[in-house]
From TrEMBL:
Family indicated by similarity: Belongs to the peptidase S54 family.
Organism: Solimonas terrae
Name this protein carries in UniProt: Rhomboid family intramembrane serine protease
Peptidase S54 rhomboid domain segment(s): 38-179
PANTHER family: PRESENILIN-ASSOCIATED RHOMBOID-LIKE PROTEIN, MITOCHONDRIAL (PTHR43731:SF14), RHOMBOID PROTEASE (PTHR43731)
Length: 188
């Protein structure tokens, strides 16, 4: 499933480059009242704003997704990814409505945050080494610090153009779902 999602995201980005802005106009997540359509809750997660945006999300999916999928199984991993996409989109729609923001949102980051929190919950002793600066952190601490940064950036409005609350929505959705599941290895 991880490789299928990687392929789908890259292929759809290729289509996005070929088709152009009309694809973003139709399939990005627009705020309610500013072009919103229900399918955008899912379709927006397969669009990306730039090659770097795509690369960052796909690197995260590759790094965390394979282990999470191996622990949960294909179906549960797909459910985790989809639910995180939905909770990310719903969080973004709520914040957009509160702030009267009319900008569309694209990217798989919300789903990726759900996968990251699942990784931290499944593998709490794993260490993640940040690239800049190269600091080793236990996976749960990495996710908590990343979430705190997203909350800070979202509340202060720093790093405009990033859907910080969508990231947090995906994280919360993934966390709540993981609290209801046990990994496949502990069910045997």
């Amino acid at each position: 499933m991880t490789y299928t999602l990687l392929f789908a995201n890259v292929a759809i980005f290729g289509l996005e480059l070929l088709i152009g802005s009309s694809m973003v106009q139709r399939y990005a997540l627009w705020p309610i009242g500013a072009g919103f359509a229900p399918w955008q809750i899912l379709s927006s997660a397969f669009l990306h704003g730039s090659p770097m945006h795509l690369a960052a999300n796909m690197l995260g999916l590759f790094v965390f997704g394979r282990d999470v999928e191996a622990a949960l199984g294909r179906l549960r991993f797909a459910t985790l990814y989809a639910l995180s996409m939905v909770t990310a989109a719903l969080a973004q729609l709520a914040v957009s409505a509160l702030l009267h923001d009319a900008h569309p949102v694209v990217g798989a980051s919300g789903a990726l945050f759900g996968v990251m929190v699942a990784f931290a919950m499944l593998f709490p002793k794993r260490v993640i080494i940040l690239l800049f600066p190269p600091i080793p952190l236990p996976a749960p601490l990495f996710v908590v610090l990343y979430a705190a940064f997203e909350l800070y950036a979202g509340v202060t409005g720093s790093m405009s153009g990033v859907a910080h609350f969508a990231h947090l929505g995906g994280l919360v959705g993934g966390f709540l779902l993981m609290r209801t599941w046990r990994p496949r290895s502990s069910r045997r």
